Amino acid sequence: MEIPVIETERLRLRGFEARDLDSFAALNANPRFIKFFGTGQPISRYESWQVMAMLVGHWHLNQFGFWLVEDRKTNQFIGRVGCWRPENWPGIEVAWGISPDFWGYGYATEAAKASLEWGFANLNVDRLISVIHPDNIASKRVAARIGEVYTTTESVNGKISDIYEITRSSFMAIL
Q: What is the pTM for the complete model shown?
């Protein structure tokens, strides 16, 4: 499967490639970034390779997944974003993770909005969700900026998570 490329005003969303491992591993080794993901602890380069392979594989199994986010002008790695639904997930999620070096510039909002648009255009769903750590205030702000609303707090794979969602009709109304 060929992973689609999306371009926004400032960003390019594209499939991961082997050459992206250095940047992706550095991101996952950053304690500020990883705080609200997985165990909350930095992961090794080898574990980052495994995660990257899983993200690529998700596209092939489901025809949707995560993109690498890069600056359109410089091709600099910024983070990752996309739609996914791993086993036992409460719905198809739009998720984002931007390098702390790029926090505060609106990249998460821009990339997440592009993911929502792609998701509603290409997936047969009436709602998309975001699973957010209860203490991740910045991600809750991104969720609000892209039109998602808090719906519930539940255990997702053994971790308490706040669930935000947006319906297709709500998203179409704010386009």
A: 0.96
